[in-house]
Write a structure and sequence with these properties.
The complex is a heterodimer.
Chain A (H helix, E strand, L loop, with lengths): L1 H14 L2 H22 L13 H21 L2 H6 L1 H18 L1 E3 L2 E7 L2 E3 L1 H20 L6 H19 L4 H7 L2 H7 L5 H18 L2 H18 L7 H25 L2 H10 L11 H11 L12 H5 L10 H34 L3 H25 L17 H19 L6
Chain B lengths: L1 H26 L2 H10 E6 L6 E2 L5 E13 L9 H8 L3 H14 L5 E7 L1 H10 L6 E11 L5 H4 L1 E4 L2 H6 L8 E4 L1 H5 L1 H5 L3 E7 L5 E4 L15 E3 L3 H10 L5 E7 L4 E8 L12 H9 L9 H4 L9 H10 L9 E10 L2 E11 L1 H7 L2 H12 L5 H13 L22 H7 L24 H12 L3 E3 L4 E4 L11 E3 L7 H13 L14 E13 L2 E15 L6 E7 L9 H14 L5 H9 L3 H32 L1
Parallel strand pairs in B: 2-10
Antiparallel strand pairs in B: 1-8, 2-3, 3-4, 3-5, 6-7, 8-9, 10-16, 11-12, 11-20, 13-14, 15-17, 18-19, 19-20
Helix pairs in contact in B: 10-20, 13-15, 14-19
The chains are: A mainly alpha, B alpha+beta.
């Protein structure tokens, strides 16, 4: 018994994907350097000073190491076997927020104890991914029936609903990325198309007069109808689609005026360049752009960023950490960080496709999807490609919950991957 | 296929992010500037402006401290506007206007809110400044004039305007800059370099220490003192003599080209253009009849009149169309075409020497005719003549170190070809040039420079106002000899003729005991148009002289608008100036008194009326135009 466990551990060390671990370590290290710069007080203290943000982050990084060892030591079957349990714990933790949660800026998404906060939605992502992978791997749905579609979506729509009630738009939105995973596993494509077209129409409707958009829709539909060479060119479906799109366009104004909160409207206005006050709702994006934009090719140098030092960018050590990269390390530094992330995504997708069984493949897809969505939403928001939505940059942003949650998410996959040799 | 969607989305998203980053960081550099505005506070320290001394070491211009209240609009907080208005004695409307103006310039950069406070205002405000966030006091230096003359020589200083800032990035809003005179010419020397301190700020606008340990900071550099070539006493005396007369006096030391006096009349007291009253006083001065800001010695272009005969004579000798023995008979004038006649005072037959003394028109008209018609083609003669004159610095900018000037006009063959496209012009057609009328115009300083070349017998130094700069050298152009095209030996007979002017000629009553003066009188006809009718005014009076004859120490050019015959006002003025400079005291006090008392104001009435009418008409037209524009717009 002792001997076999020893052997198992050895196989983890030799089979685990060291490239991913290397990228992970590098991102965590670079993240810490930038957190250090962004949170350095006038009088530098020890980097282990727990009273400082950079000191706390070192503690979280330190905690991750034994966690990684534990995650890699646990039997790979464990994660699949207990996926339902993890999921239930996750849902309970979200429900518990309504009773025990701490409200910060109108959002109740934290547990607070012993001076540290815990954000359950970060961990729920992993639990959801595990359950989704387990469902698809075991039930092997074709997603042709409405029931299968409902179960597939329901697995992540349920926590999304709870998260929306906190309310936390950003985290909820991240889950939408799982549609990509469903699509990979056979989900009908028109869900993605509908979402994509809806987003485009939403912004077009805010920017232009409805009449122009109607003309655009009409032209697009006619072109599609004419070029569609398939036999089932049912004009009735075309008509319905057109009417729905037009209805959507007209409902955008209503949604915008009546449904969206003022701060959400502001964020959308900021993005589409409506007249905004740079001292109020436009402040974050403007300062973020100034910090990044003043970096030029190689940046102002480590600890030399005037915007970083002056504390102009709000929340710079958490969601806005990439602005420090932009200012102090310039375009070159940004390319390095982006390069590391993109390499990581492709590595995970590559490893996922190499799996011989469905569970680790689907889970891997989920990991890549979550990480990519975080990365894309975070960085796009800082440079004005996406409305301001508070999501952390994985491994990079300050924060114990997000670092540990992403570490767990990634290393479960690495464990599953290292186990593939045993999966005959 | 389904495997490909996710990688494609990753690639597209990455491209979008990289492109946007490239745009923000590399292409659009406005963020770099915004970042500096954001995080840096710049504090300036203004050094004292250099002093100005005269050639004898007398202090002419010093400094006095002045305090500006500056404002940074976006930093104004919890302002008690009424209290502030009360302390500064301004109205609420004034306050709003000033703040609005500052905001338009920049919400985050300092603008001058109220400039040049008196010491008392400053003291009152300084006690309370800490209550007014966004306002601070900037110390500067204003000029403190020790003398009440030479306004045209000094120029003045004023706050920079938008154009100044655009033209030269050194200046920022609120800075002072020298305008006209030596203040403009030696602006960079006098002003020094302002000191800059960069201070890192945080988002609450708190200062968190020097930016990058102060590696970009610089300490201010004091402006350098300069000594100008003006003789303060001579300048002051000349300005006194010129009261109630319009025109100018230029005195130059021929051996060096140093300008001893540069008098333009009417002039103004430089003290009027200091401080908060500056712009009001400027407006008033500018509207005075005669325009005190029109520096007649530098930018007044006049026909030189008879003194120009000196050049005609010299060129005649150089071109060998006459020699010292050549004589032309004259019977009170010279007929150069049918019915056209140039009058002369005396009749007889003269050679060069008495011709200069008597200022004989006939003699020089004949000489000029010979010069132009010497060659087969009058073009060649005209251009030879033109080139000789150019070598005296005429018809071009002299290159002195004052910011304003005029070229004057010396016509050449091209000029006349344009007037007479079919050709056919010759010496007689342009005969007025012979005696300094016709198409020739010069500035008084150019005329003085011609006399320097005569006094030096063939060369001059570019006239200049700078004598020395503290710890620095003056432009070496000013110590380079400029030679004329006339050989040295030709000057001797001309100088003898000029000396004769004082002994027996047109200025014989103006001799100074013990000093031999060489000079030349001149009168210039001038006209004015009144209601479309050409009306002749009293002649301009010109006098050109140097002394002593044996060792010239001063060249003087006097130009009096409508002063009449050269020997009545211009001549005596020149002679008094020479005496003042060479002897220091005036022996001929009765002559001095006559000149101090004499006024030509009555001569200017008509001219001023016409000018005023013209100005009023122009103003009316401008208003009408503006009104029309308003209606149309």
């Amino acid at each position: 018994m002792v001997k076999t466990k020893h052997l198992a551990n050895q196989s983890v060390i030799s089979n685990v994907d060291w490239l991913t671990i290397f990228i992970y370590a590098l991102l965590v290290f670079l993240g810490w350097l930038n957190i250090y710069s962004a949170s350095l007080p006038d009088e530098a203290t020890s980097i282990f000073d727990l009273g400082q943000i950079y000191g706390k982050q070192i503690l979280f990084i330190g905690l991750s190491i034994p966690l990684i060892i534990v995650l890699l030591s646990i039997d790979a079957k464990f994660y699949e076997k207990y996926a339902v349990v993890f999921y239930c714990i996750g849902i309970l933790s979200l429900l518990g927020l309504f009773v025990f949660g701490k409200s910060i800026k109108g959002q109740t998404n934290w547990y607070q104890f012993a001076g540290f906060g815990l954000q359950p939605s970060e961990f729920v992502k992993t639990a959801t991914a595990l359950l989704l992978a387990k469902y698809i791997a075991e039930a092997q749905p074709t997603f042709e029936t409405l029931k299968e579609q409902a179960i597939g979506m329901g697995i992540f729509m349920f926590p999304v609903l709870l998260i929306l009630m906190q309310p936390d738009m950003g985290s909820a939105m991240i889950f939408m990325t799982l549609f990509l995973v469903l699509y990979r596993e056979g989900f009908p494509g028109w869900y993605l198309w509908t979402g994509f077209v809806a987003i485009i129409l939403f912004f077009l409707a805010l920017l232009f007069e409805p009449l122009f958009i109607l003309i655009g829709i009409a032209i697009a539909v006619i072109i599609h109808f004419i070029t569609n060479k398939k036999i089932n060119r049912n004009p009735f479906i075309y008509l319905i689609v057109t009417v729905v799109m037009i209805g959507f366009v007209y409902s955008v104004d209503y949604v915008y005026d009546s449904v969206l909160e003022p701060h959400q409207k502001d964020r959308i206005n900021v993005l589409i360049g409506e007249d905004v006050d740079m001292k109020k709702e436009g402040y974050n994006l403007n300062q973020s752009k100034i910090a990044i934009g003043s970096g030029n090719w190689t940046g102002k140098g480590f600890l030399e960023g005037t915007q970083t030092k002056g504390g102009f960018v709000p929340e710079q050590h958490t969601d806005y950490i990439f602005t420090t990269v932009g200012e102090e390390w310039g375009f070159a530094g940004c390319m390095v960080v982006i390069g590391l992330f993109v390499t990581l995504f492709f590595r995970i997708l590559y490893l996922a496709e190499q799996q011989k069984t469905a569970f680790p493949r689907i889970y891997g897809y989920c990991v890549a999807a979550f990480l990519f969505m975080h990365f894309f939403v975070n960085v796009s928001m800082l440079i004005g490609l996406f409305p301001t939505i508070g999501v952390p940059l994985p491994f990079f942003s300050y924060g114990g919950s997000s670092l540990i949650a992403f570490t767990i998410m990634l290393f479960i996959f690495l464990k599953l991957d290292s186990n593939k040799v045993n999966e005959w | 296929m389904r495997k490909l969607l996710f990688p494609i989305i990753i690639i597209l998203a990455t491209i979008a992010i990289v492109a946007k980053l490239f745009y923000l960081q590399i292409i659009d550099d406005s963020y770099l500037k915004k970042s500096d505005n954001n995080a840096l506070k710049i504090v300036y320290e203004y050094p004292e402006r250099g002093y100005i001394y005269d050639r004898t070491g007398k202090l002419l211009v010093a400094n006095q401290p002045s305090y500006d209240i500056m404002v940074i609009p976006r930093e104004i907080k919890n302002l008690d506007t009424l209290a502030l208005c009360k302390i500064l004695d301004i109205t609420r409307e004034d306050f709003d206007k000033k703040i609005e103006k500052a905001k338009v310039y920049s919400p985050r950069l300092p603008s001058v809110f109220l400039s040049q406070l008196t010491k008392r205002e400053f003291a009152a405000f300084q006690e309370k400044i800490r209550h007014y966030k966004g306002f601070y006091i900037q110390k500067r230096n204003l000029r403190d004039y020790q003398v009440d003359f030479a306004g045209n020589v000094f120029g003045y200083i004023r706050q920079v305007n938008e154009n100044d800032v655009k033209r030269n990035p050194y200046y920022i809003s609120g800075d002072l800059i020298g305008i006209q005179g030596v203040e403009q010419a030696y602006e960079e020397v006098l002003r020094g370099q302002k000191g800059v301190k960069y201070i890192q700020k945080d988002k609450h606008n708190r200062e968190i220490g020097p930016f990058k340990e102060g590696i970009y900071d610089s300490i201010s550099e004091k402006g350098k003192d300069i000594t100008i070539t003006i003789d303060g006493a001579l300048q002051e005396y000349g300005e006194k003599l010129m009261v109630n007369k319009r025109g100018g006096i230029v005195a130059i030391e021929p051996k060096t080209g140093e300008i001893l006096a540069l008098i333009a009349s009417p002039n103004y007291d430089p003290k009027l253009l200091v401080g908060r009253q500056r712009s009001k006083n400027y407006q008033q001065l500018a509207e005075l009849p005669g325009d005190p800001f029109f520096d007649r010695v530098l930018i007044g272009e006049y026909s030189p009149g008879s003194p120009f005969k000196i050049l005609t004579g010299l060129i005649g000798l150089q071109e060998e169309v006459i020699d010292t023995h050549t004589s032309f008979p004259c019977s009170h004038g010279f007929y150069y075409a049918r019915g056209a006649f140039m009058k002369c005072h005396d009749a007889g037959s003269w050679n060069l020497h008495p011709a200069i003394a008597k200022s004989c028109n006939t003699y020089f008209a004949q000489t000029y005719k010979r010069i132009i018609d010497k060659y087969k083609n009058p073009k060649l003669g005209m251009d030879a003549w033109y080139n000789h004159l150019r070598s005296f610095g005429l018809g071009q900018f002299l290159g002195y170190d004052l910011p304003i000037g005029r070229k004057g006009q010396i016509p050449n063959s091209e000029y006349y070809d344009r007037w007479y496209p079919k050709g056919g012009w010759k010496g007689t057609t342009t005969i007025s040039n012979a005696i300094g009328q016709g198409e020739i115009t010069v500035t008084p300083i150019q005329l003085a420079n011609v006399m320097c070349a005569v006094a030096n017998q063939g060369y001059y130094y570019t006239p200049h106002i700078i004598k020395s700069i503290q710890d620095d050298k003056i432009d070496k152009n000013f110590v380079e000899k400029k030679t004329t095209t006339i050989d040295k030996q030709h000057f001797f007979p001309v100088i003898e003729g000029l000396a004769e002017v004082y002994k027996s000629g047109t200025a014989s009553r103006l001799q100074i005991p013990d000093i031999n003066i060489c000079g030349k009188t001149g009168t210039v006809e001038n006209f004015i148009k009144v209601d479309g009718q050409k009306k002749q005014l009293k002649d301009h009076s010109v006098f050109l002289a140097f002394a002593p004859k044996e060792d010239p120490k001063i060249v003087i050019a006097v130009f009096i608008e409508n002063g009449g015959f050269g020997a009545t006002i211009a001549g005596p003025l020149a002679s008094l100036m020479i005496e003042k400079y060479l002897k220091g005291i005036i022996t001929r006090t009765d002559l001095e008194k006559r000149l101090l008392d004499s006024t030509l104001e009555s001569e200017y009435i008509l001219k001023d009326q016409v000018e005023a009418e013209k100005r009023a008409k122009a103003k009316l037209e401008a208003e009408l135009k503006a009104k029309q524009k308003r209606i149309n717009g």
